[in-house]
From TrEMBL:
InterPro entries: Epimerase_deHydtase, NAD(P)-bd_dom_sf, NAD(P)-dependent_oxidoreduct
Region (Disordered): 112-136
Matches recorded under CDD domains: SDR_a7
Name of this chain's protein: Nucleoside-diphosphate-sugar epimerase
Lineage: Bacteria, Pseudomonadati, Pseudomonadota, Alphaproteobacteria, Hyphomicrobiales
Highest taxon of source: Bacteria
PANTHER family reported in the protein's UniProt record: NAD(P)-BINDING DOMAIN-CONTAINING PROTEIN-RELATED, PROTEIN YEEZ
Pfam families: Epimerase
Ranges for domain NAD-dependent epimerase/dehydratase: 3-228
Protein backbone atom coordinates (compact mmCIF):
# COMPACT_ATOMS: atom_id res chain seq x y z
CA UNK A 1 0.00 0.00 0.00
CA UNK A 2 1.26 3.52 -0.83
CA UNK A 3 0.65 5.63 2.28
CA UNK A 4 0.79 9.41 2.62
CA UNK A 5 1.95 10.44 6.11
CA UNK A 6 1.98 13.86 7.76
CA UNK A 7 3.82 14.63 10.98
CA UNK A 8 6.67 12.37 9.97
CA UNK A 9 9.28 14.30 11.94
CA UNK A 10 7.31 14.66 15.17
CA UNK A 11 7.56 12.30 18.13
CA UNK A 12 5.37 9.52 16.74
CA UNK A 13 5.96 10.12 13.01
CA UNK A 14 9.34 8.40 12.61
CA UNK A 15 8.04 5.31 14.44
CA UNK A 16 4.94 5.22 12.22
CA UNK A 17 6.99 5.55 9.02
CA UNK A 18 9.46 2.88 10.13
CA UNK A 19 6.67 0.49 11.12
CA UNK A 20 4.87 0.96 7.80
CA UNK A 21 8.02 0.34 5.77
CA UNK A 22 8.95 -2.71 7.85
CA UNK A 23 5.49 -4.11 7.07
CA UNK A 24 6.07 -3.69 3.33
CA UNK A 25 4.23 -0.44 2.67
CA UNK A 26 5.56 2.43 0.57
CA UNK A 27 5.51 5.80 2.33
CA UNK A 28 5.46 9.38 1.09
CA UNK A 29 5.85 11.89 3.90
CA UNK A 30 5.09 15.60 3.95
CA UNK A 31 8.14 17.78 4.63
CA UNK A 32 8.13 21.55 5.06
CA UNK A 33 11.89 22.14 5.29
CA UNK A 34 15.14 20.71 3.97
CA UNK A 35 15.87 19.35 7.45
CA UNK A 36 12.52 17.54 7.59
CA UNK A 37 13.00 16.21 4.08
CA UNK A 38 16.39 14.76 5.03
CA UNK A 39 14.90 13.17 8.17
CA UNK A 40 12.02 11.37 6.43
CA UNK A 41 14.26 10.36 3.53
CA UNK A 42 16.68 8.77 6.00
CA UNK A 43 13.80 6.64 7.27
CA UNK A 44 13.24 5.27 3.77
CA UNK A 45 10.23 7.39 2.82
CA UNK A 46 9.72 9.46 -0.30
CA UNK A 47 9.48 13.19 0.29
CA UNK A 48 6.62 15.48 -0.69
CA UNK A 49 7.45 19.10 0.00
CA UNK A 50 4.57 21.18 1.31
CA UNK A 51 2.72 22.73 4.24
CA UNK A 52 -0.42 21.94 6.21
CA UNK A 53 -1.97 25.18 4.99
CA UNK A 54 -1.68 24.01 1.36
CA UNK A 55 -5.04 22.24 1.18
CA UNK A 56 -4.80 21.62 -2.57
CA UNK A 57 -1.45 19.94 -2.04
CA UNK A 58 -2.84 17.74 0.74
CA UNK A 59 -5.82 16.74 -1.39
CA UNK A 60 -3.54 15.85 -4.30
CA UNK A 61 -1.28 13.77 -2.05
CA UNK A 62 -4.28 11.94 -0.59
CA UNK A 63 -5.78 11.26 -4.01
CA UNK A 64 -2.47 9.85 -5.28
CA UNK A 65 -2.09 7.51 -2.29
CA UNK A 66 -3.79 4.28 -1.22
CA UNK A 67 -4.35 5.68 2.27
CA UNK A 68 -3.50 8.54 4.62
CA UNK A 69 -2.14 8.68 8.16
CA UNK A 70 -2.35 12.20 9.56
CA UNK A 71 -0.58 13.01 12.86
CA UNK A 72 0.56 16.57 12.15
CA UNK A 73 -0.89 19.65 13.87
CA UNK A 74 -0.72 23.39 13.22
CA UNK A 75 1.34 24.08 16.34
CA UNK A 76 2.35 27.41 14.82
CA UNK A 77 -1.18 28.69 15.58
CA UNK A 78 -0.92 28.09 19.33
CA UNK A 79 0.76 31.38 20.30
CA UNK A 80 -1.91 33.54 18.68
CA UNK A 81 -5.05 31.41 18.49
CA UNK A 82 -4.57 28.68 21.08
CA UNK A 83 -6.18 25.25 20.84
CA UNK A 84 -9.28 26.72 19.20
CA UNK A 85 -7.30 27.87 16.16
CA UNK A 86 -5.38 24.59 15.96
CA UNK A 87 -8.62 22.58 16.04
CA UNK A 88 -10.31 24.79 13.43
CA UNK A 89 -7.36 24.42 11.06
CA UNK A 90 -7.25 20.67 11.57
CA UNK A 91 -10.96 20.29 10.89
CA UNK A 92 -10.46 22.13 7.59
CA UNK A 93 -7.70 19.67 6.69
CA UNK A 94 -9.96 16.70 7.48
CA UNK A 95 -12.68 18.09 5.24
CA UNK A 96 -10.11 18.51 2.47
CA UNK A 97 -9.10 14.87 2.82
CA UNK A 98 -12.78 14.01 2.66
CA UNK A 99 -13.10 15.75 -0.71
CA UNK A 100 -10.09 13.88 -2.07
CA UNK A 101 -11.09 10.43 -0.74
CA UNK A 102 -14.88 10.61 -1.06
CA UNK A 103 -16.36 7.39 -2.44
CA UNK A 104 -13.00 5.62 -2.72
CA UNK A 105 -13.14 3.43 0.38
CA UNK A 106 -9.51 4.37 1.05
CA UNK A 107 -8.38 4.57 4.68
CA UNK A 108 -7.83 7.85 6.53
CA UNK A 109 -6.35 7.36 10.01
CA UNK A 110 -5.92 10.40 12.24
CA UNK A 111 -4.85 11.02 15.81
CA UNK A 112 -7.29 11.65 18.65
CA UNK A 113 -6.81 12.06 22.37
CA UNK A 114 -7.80 10.01 25.39
CA UNK A 115 -7.85 13.24 27.37
CA UNK A 116 -10.14 15.39 25.24
CA UNK A 117 -13.51 13.64 24.71
CA UNK A 118 -14.90 14.59 28.15
CA UNK A 119 -15.35 11.20 29.79
CA UNK A 120 -14.25 12.02 33.32
CA UNK A 121 -16.32 10.52 36.13
CA UNK A 122 -17.53 7.59 34.02
CA UNK A 123 -16.83 5.33 36.97
CA UNK A 124 -15.07 2.86 34.67
CA UNK A 125 -12.32 2.91 32.05
CA UNK A 126 -13.36 4.59 28.80
CA UNK A 127 -13.64 2.25 25.83
CA UNK A 128 -13.39 2.61 22.08
CA UNK A 129 -17.19 2.58 21.90
CA UNK A 130 -17.59 5.65 24.11
CA UNK A 131 -18.49 8.51 21.75
CA UNK A 132 -16.56 11.73 21.57
CA UNK A 133 -18.67 14.35 23.34
CA UNK A 134 -19.47 17.68 21.74
CA UNK A 135 -17.28 20.69 22.37
CA UNK A 136 -18.79 24.11 21.81
CA UNK A 137 -18.29 27.58 23.25
CA UNK A 138 -18.24 26.34 26.84
CA UNK A 139 -15.04 24.39 26.20
CA UNK A 140 -13.05 26.99 24.25
CA UNK A 141 -9.38 26.91 25.15
CA UNK A 142 -9.51 23.32 26.47
CA UNK A 143 -8.55 19.98 24.94
CA UNK A 144 -12.21 19.22 24.39
CA UNK A 145 -12.42 21.88 21.68
CA UNK A 146 -10.54 19.43 19.46
CA UNK A 147 -13.39 16.93 19.61
CA UNK A 148 -14.83 18.51 16.46
CA UNK A 149 -11.87 17.04 14.58
CA UNK A 150 -12.60 13.50 15.73
CA UNK A 151 -16.31 13.74 14.94
CA UNK A 152 -15.53 15.21 11.52
CA UNK A 153 -13.19 12.33 10.70
CA UNK A 154 -15.70 9.69 11.76
CA UNK A 155 -18.40 11.48 9.78
CA UNK A 156 -16.41 10.97 6.59
CA UNK A 157 -17.36 7.29 6.80
CA UNK A 158 -20.79 8.29 5.47
CA UNK A 159 -19.06 9.67 2.37
CA UNK A 160 -17.29 6.46 1.45
CA UNK A 161 -14.02 7.10 3.30
CA UNK A 162 -12.67 4.30 5.51
CA UNK A 163 -11.93 6.79 8.26
CA UNK A 164 -10.83 6.01 11.82
CA UNK A 165 -9.34 7.75 14.84
CA UNK A 166 -6.50 6.46 17.03
CA UNK A 167 -6.93 7.98 20.48
CA UNK A 168 -3.55 8.62 22.07
CA UNK A 169 -2.95 8.49 25.85
CA UNK A 170 -1.82 11.45 27.91
CA UNK A 171 1.76 10.15 27.89
CA UNK A 172 3.55 8.79 24.85
CA UNK A 173 7.07 7.80 25.86
CA UNK A 174 10.22 6.64 24.06
CA UNK A 175 13.96 7.16 23.87
CA UNK A 176 13.38 10.09 21.50
CA UNK A 177 10.82 11.92 23.65
CA UNK A 178 12.14 15.43 24.23
CA UNK A 179 9.03 17.57 24.23
CA UNK A 180 6.18 15.45 25.64
CA UNK A 181 4.56 15.64 29.04
CA UNK A 182 7.25 13.58 30.77
CA UNK A 183 10.14 15.93 29.86
CA UNK A 184 7.94 18.88 30.86
CA UNK A 185 7.08 17.33 34.23
CA UNK A 186 10.73 16.43 34.82
CA UNK A 187 11.84 19.95 33.93
CA UNK A 188 9.20 21.44 36.23
CA UNK A 189 10.38 19.22 39.09
CA UNK A 190 13.97 20.36 38.62
CA UNK A 191 12.83 23.98 38.60
CA UNK A 192 10.66 23.68 41.70
CA UNK A 193 12.87 21.30 43.68
CA UNK A 194 9.91 18.98 44.32
CA UNK A 195 7.71 16.74 42.17
CA UNK A 196 4.13 17.88 42.53
CA UNK A 197 0.93 15.93 42.08
CA UNK A 198 -2.61 17.39 42.19
CA UNK A 199 -4.56 16.85 45.39
CA UNK A 200 -4.28 13.26 46.56
CA UNK A 201 -2.79 12.22 43.22
CA UNK A 202 -5.28 9.40 42.70
CA UNK A 203 -6.37 10.66 39.27
CA UNK A 204 -5.38 8.22 36.53
CA UNK A 205 -3.33 8.79 33.41
CA UNK A 206 -2.78 6.30 30.59
CA UNK A 207 0.37 5.77 28.56
CA UNK A 208 1.91 4.04 25.55
CA UNK A 209 5.35 3.63 24.03
CA UNK A 210 5.66 5.43 20.67
CA UNK A 211 6.73 2.21 18.95
CA UNK A 212 3.59 0.40 20.13
CA UNK A 213 1.48 3.40 19.12
CA UNK A 214 2.86 3.19 15.59
CA UNK A 215 1.60 -0.37 15.28
CA UNK A 216 -1.96 0.74 16.08
CA UNK A 217 -1.88 3.32 13.28
CA UNK A 218 -0.65 0.70 10.81
CA UNK A 219 -3.22 -1.89 11.91
CA UNK A 220 -6.02 0.69 11.66
CA UNK A 221 -4.83 1.57 8.16
CA UNK A 222 -4.83 -2.08 7.15
CA UNK A 223 -7.87 -3.43 8.98
CA UNK A 224 -10.18 -0.79 10.44
CA UNK A 225 -13.77 -0.61 9.27
CA UNK A 226 -15.07 2.88 8.51
CA UNK A 227 -16.04 5.18 11.34
CA UNK A 228 -14.23 3.49 14.22
CA UNK A 229 -12.24 4.69 17.23
CA UNK A 230 -9.19 2.82 18.52
CA UNK A 231 -7.28 3.15 21.79
CA UNK A 232 -3.48 3.00 21.63
CA UNK A 233 -3.32 2.39 25.38
CA UNK A 234 -0.72 0.10 26.95
CA UNK A 235 -0.86 1.32 30.58
CA UNK A 236 -4.58 1.81 31.14
CA UNK A 237 -4.55 3.57 34.52
CA UNK A 238 -1.53 4.89 36.41
CA UNK A 239 -2.29 7.16 39.40
CA UNK A 240 -0.60 10.52 38.86
CA UNK A 241 0.98 10.20 42.30
CA UNK A 242 2.85 7.06 41.17
CA UNK A 243 4.21 8.93 38.16
CA UNK A 244 5.33 11.80 40.41
CA UNK A 245 6.93 9.41 42.89
CA UNK A 246 8.74 7.57 40.08
CA UNK A 247 10.15 10.85 38.78
CA UNK A 248 11.05 11.94 42.32
CA UNK A 249 12.93 8.73 43.09
CA UNK A 250 15.10 9.17 40.02
CA UNK A 251 15.75 12.88 40.64
CA UNK A 252 16.13 12.32 44.38
CA UNK A 253 13.40 14.89 44.98
CA UNK A 254 10.33 14.57 47.23
CA UNK A 255 6.90 14.03 45.68
CA UNK A 256 4.42 16.40 47.32
CA UNK A 257 0.69 17.14 46.96
CA UNK A 258 -0.30 20.46 45.41
CA UNK A 259 -3.70 21.68 46.65
CA UNK A 260 -6.19 21.55 43.80
CA UNK A 261 -7.54 25.05 44.19
CA UNK A 262 -7.46 28.08 41.93
CA UNK A 263 -4.40 29.54 43.61
CA UNK A 264 -2.02 26.67 44.29
CA UNK A 265 -2.46 24.29 41.35
CA UNK A 266 -2.02 26.84 38.51
CA UNK A 267 0.69 28.51 40.57
CA UNK A 268 2.72 25.30 40.53
CA UNK A 269 1.85 23.65 37.22
CA UNK A 270 1.19 26.74 35.09
CA UNK A 271 -0.32 25.90 31.69
CA UNK A 272 -0.45 22.21 32.68
CA UNK A 273 -2.92 22.89 35.51
CA UNK A 274 -5.98 21.54 33.68
CA UNK A 275 -4.11 18.58 32.22
CA UNK A 276 -2.59 17.27 35.44
CA UNK A 277 -6.08 17.02 36.97
CA UNK A 278 -7.37 14.75 34.20
CA UNK A 279 -8.72 11.47 35.51
CA UNK A 280 -9.37 9.21 32.54
CA UNK A 281 -8.61 5.52 32.78
CA UNK A 282 -8.97 3.95 29.34
CA UNK A 283 -9.29 0.38 28.11
CA UNK A 284 -7.78 -0.91 24.86
CA UNK A 285 -9.44 -4.33 24.98
CA UNK A 286 -11.45 -3.79 21.80
CA UNK A 287 -8.41 -2.53 19.90
CA UNK A 288 -6.36 -5.53 21.00
CA UNK A 289 -9.06 -8.03 20.11
CA UNK A 290 -10.23 -6.49 16.83
CA UNK A 291 -6.95 -5.28 15.35
CA UNK A 292 -4.76 -7.97 16.91
CA UNK A 293 -2.59 -5.39 18.66
CA UNK A 294 -0.41 -6.33 21.61
CA UNK A 295 2.08 -3.87 23.12
CA UNK A 296 5.64 -5.20 23.20
CA UNK A 297 7.62 -2.23 24.54
CA UNK A 298 8.32 -1.31 28.18
CA UNK A 299 5.48 0.28 30.15
CA UNK A 300 5.79 3.84 31.39
CA UNK A 301 7.25 3.14 34.84
CA UNK A 302 9.67 0.57 33.41
CA UNK A 303 10.76 3.00 30.71
CA UNK A 304 11.61 5.56 33.38
CA UNK A 305 14.17 3.02 34.62
CA UNK A 306 15.95 2.93 31.26
CA UNK A 307 17.80 6.17 31.96
CA UNK A 308 17.13 8.18 28.82
CA UNK A 309 14.79 10.57 30.63
CA UNK A 310 17.44 11.18 33.30
CA UNK A 311 20.82 11.47 31.56
CA UNK A 312 23.83 11.75 33.83
CA UNK A 313 24.80 15.37 34.35
Amino acid sequence: MHVFVTGGTGHSGPYIISDLIAAGHQVTALARSDKSAEAVSALGAKVRRGDLDDLDGLKAAAAESDGVIHVAHRQDLLPTGGLDAVAAAEQTIMLAYGEALKGTGKPLVTSGSIGSPGWEHLGRPATEEDPTLSGGEKFKGTLRVRNIVETTVLGLAEQGVRSSVVRIPTIMHSTTDNAGFLPILIGLAKEKGVVGYPGDGKNNWSAVHARDLAAVFRLALEKSPAGRNWHAVADEAIPFREIAEAIGSRLKLPAVPIPADELMLPGFFGFLANLVKLDVAASSAITRQTLGWEPTQPGLLADLDNGHYFPAS
